[in-house]
From TrEMBL:
It comes from the Eukaryota. GO terms for cellular component: mitochondrion. Its EC number is 2.6.1.1. This is Aspartate aminotransferase. It comes from Spodoptera exigua. Belongs to the class-I pyridoxal-phosphate-dependent aminotransferase family. Homodimer. CDD domains: AAT_like. Coiled coil: none annotated. GO terms for molecular function: L-aspartate:2-oxoglutarate aminotransferase activity; pyridoxal phosphate binding. The keyword Nucleotide-binding does not apply.
């Protein structure tokens, strides 16, 4: 017996020495020592600073999500009804097809391209479910990187949503900018935009915000979209539309899809990313879609086969709950009518807050022009505030926004609009 204990003790001692050596070895050789701290997300940084502020007057104008007039997250009545209907169906939780449910894909394609879309009628479109709009962009950009045979340059409007260039960088896709926003007028720079587009190499991809441009809130007028369509077609560019706010610009989902439908009618082959985060309030459900409008059915079939392979390696299958909600709303006439009312109600609140904010600033005798607040559209507004004015409005008034002066109008409510107007007036008057 003592011999056995001695042997066991020897083994434990040897193991302890090995463990000690392993710990020492790990301390001296870090496989991830090359990884550096990444820069913080601009929007999340604004939100974190807002949360730490103890002032009862604080206002967060950085958040990119809709809030009701009490500054609370809003669950659409149509969504709540759809959830109740789905619950009563006692559905299972089996995998969705790689490209998502076919009914869902057909419904969202028609929502984007229109019921009279020639591409849908001729089965020249490919539409797959994605992880919201960001997932649609990522799949679309990665598909370009792997399969696009022309110039892989992606041209982005200046400015654009911060995630657009980041996705390009992650995939090592070259990207450049074309003029879009004119800081002098706080509006759309049609001439500069067209001049830059005319210099883009044929076959390149041009990214376009379909409506409610993020971050400026500046959209081309219908006749300007017609001009852009003609120039882009003449230059033989591939339009890639990002439509994250359908319904949020004018309150009408058909009006907000004008550009996409115009380009299809004009004969463009195109790509379209859709999201149901904003217009259905399904932020956490991560439900969206990616569509290709192709030249013929054979090309569409080839693209579908390859995009499924791509999705299989990324996340295998999309989630089912969000797509079920969208499908229920778009396929049920009563729910769809309710949803269209819900979308208009949200858009109208945003439009009303823009009006009240502008009136509040002008009523105080501010000498600057503020028409751009009501001319711009959608959730975001480029106020024209300079970085030093942004710093002051945050320090003195506890109002949080990004350094470029962009505000989320959804963060403005009846209870704080006068306070925000007063703050903007004071920082721009001195």
């Amino acid at each position: 017996m003592p011999h056995v204990l001695v042997k066991l003790s020897t083994q434990l001692l040897a193991k302890s020495n090995v463990d000690f050596m392993n710990i020492a070895s790990r301390a001296n050789s870090n496989f991830w020592s090359n990884v550096q701290m990444g820069p913080p997300d601009v929007i999340l940084g604004v939100t974190e600073a807002f949360k730490k502020d103890k002032s009862p007057k604080k206002v967060n104008l950085g958040v990119g999500a809709y809030r009701d007039d009490n500054n609370k997250p809003y669950i659409l009545p149509s969504v709540r009804q759809a959830e109740e209907i789905i619950f009563k169906k006692c559905l299972n939780h089996e995998y969705a097809p790689i490209g998502g449910d076919a009914t869902y894909a057909n419904l969202v394609a028609k929502l984007g391209l229109g019921d009279n879309s020639l591409a849908i009628k001729e089965k020249r479109n490919v539409t797959i479910q994605t992880l919201s709009g960001t997932g649609a962009l990522r799949v679309g950009f990665e598909f370009i990187a792997n399969h696009y045979s022309h110039s892989k340059e992606i041209w982005l409007p200046a400015p654009t949503w911060g995630n657009h260039p980041q996705i390009c960088n992650m995939l090592r896709i070259p990207h450049k900018k074309y003029r879009y926003y004119d800081p002098r007028t706080h509006g759309f720079d049609l001439q500069g935009c067209c001049e830059d587009i005319c210099s883009i190499p044929p076959g390149s991809i041009i990214l376009l915000h379909a409506c409610a441009h993020n971050p400026t809130g500046v959209d081309p007028k219908p006749e300007e979209w017609q001009t852009l369509s003609e120039v882009i077609k003449e230059k033989k560019l591939l339009p890639f539309f990002d439509m994250a706010y359908q319904g949020f610009a004018t309150g009408n989902v058909d009006n907000d899809a004008f550009a996409v439908r115009l380009f299809e009618k004009d004969g463009h082959q195109l790509m379209l990313a859709q999201s149901f985060a904003k217009n259905m309030g399904l932020y956490g459900e991560r439900v969206g879609a990616l569509s290709f409008v192709c030249a013929d059915q054979d090309t569409a079939a080839n693209i579908m086969s390859q995009v499924k392979i791509l999705i299989r390696t990324l996340y295998s299958n999309p989630a089912i709950n969000g797509s079920r909600i969208v499908t229920e709303i778009l396929s049920n006439p009563e729910l769809r009518a309710q949803w269209l009312c819900d979308v208009k109600e949200m858009a109208d609140r945003i439009i009303n807050m823009r009006k009240k904010l502008r009136e509040g600033i002008e009523r105080r005798g501010n000498k600057l022009k503020w028409q751009h607040i009501t001319d711009q559209i959608g959730m975001f507004c480029y106020t024209g505030l300079k970085p030093d004015q942004v710093a002051r409005i945050t320090k003195d008034f506890h109002i949080y926004l990004t350094k470029d002066g962009r505000i989320s109008v959804a963060g403005i409510s009846s209870s704080n609009v006068d306070y925000v107007a007063e703050a903007i007036h004071k920082v721009t008057s001195s």
